[in-house]
Task: structure prediction
Amino acid sequence: MKWNIKDAEHWSWKKYPEGALILEGGNAAYYKTGGWRTDKPAWDEEKCTQCLICWISCPDSSIIVKDEKWDSFDYDHCKGCGICAKVCPVDAISMHPEGGEE
Amino acid sequence: MATIKELSRKPELLTGGHRLCAGCGASIAVRQVLLGANDQVIAGSATGCLEVSTTPYPFSAWKIPFIHNAFENSAATISGVEAAYNALKRRGKIEKKMKFVAFGGDGGTYDIGLQSLSGAMERGHDMVYVCYDNGAYMNTGIQRSGSTPFGAATTTSPAGKVRPGKPQQRKDLTQIIAAHNIPYVAQASISHWKDLVKKAEKAFSVEGPAFLNVMAPCPRGWRTPNEITIEISKISVQTGFWPLYEVEDGEWKLNFKPKELKPITDFLKPQGRFRHLFKPGNEHLLETAQAEIDKNWSWLKKRCGVE
Result:
């Protein structure tokens, strides 16, 4: 279900659904937490063994896996905690300061 | 059980964009627990970091139905949802198979929600209760709870000249719930995902109440770097601070048996909340912490019939 909350901060009380319902599950995804990041993860395809331990250890559901293969980081939501880099058994993920050179 | 590759095909039920801190153990615990579910799941959460951060109105990070409730009654609320589901099912108004899960932090489970949890377990509802245990009331600013370990500095058990952090030992909630003689009780850690997902799968598949106590570190409250959340949970298991075991229909089983436990200092040292224990003159506190671990470990081994 699509529920437009873009201008929610300007809503009057009449616009809120009764019972403080949230009418769209998972709409937190519209809120970008990527801006919290100070360190940015980078992935090395050659080193990666597709064990996916980074994916199951990510607190922000920010490692996207497609067809059982590592696909990408969700930089819109990744907070740069560095857990993925730490748990990787083959050092295929490294952390780099945000805004620095790649 | 499914392999990690098969699990990766399951839909993501908790989206990014929730406001939990970077490196939080709670959302890792939730993601891994939900991977164990094979039917539609309805969730609720006791007030705590998890609830306020995943559902700041008008946002919700849950792609499954989620019900808000107060601090003390997440087990009661979910048991009520389960009862309503059964009533609707009897009248033929719902056919879909559904499972019910209540989440709570250690504050909402060990202390504030203990009575409602005990009641729901005793009434035998078909539900799963998951405690994500980070050892203090982190949401309100790191106050001590019944789960806070001995010696930990919190804002209500500060370490100073007179008192060296929390003077009491933590209580063992998993055993309290095991004493309810429900079909399934287990202790798990986010560092051992295979064990955790398997336990969640068992918990969801039993008919009747099930309880999971999950180690979920808090970088903010433990004063640890964000990136070591998984590593420190692994050390908590290896030192015997957080043994992995399950009680299935009264059968106790130890799931992780190291030849020798690592010293408890391996777990305490990386954490800022235990820094004062390593000052000269406080050696006896470390000995006390180690003695408690040794005592509990040998008791648990005996209980599980392991030598």
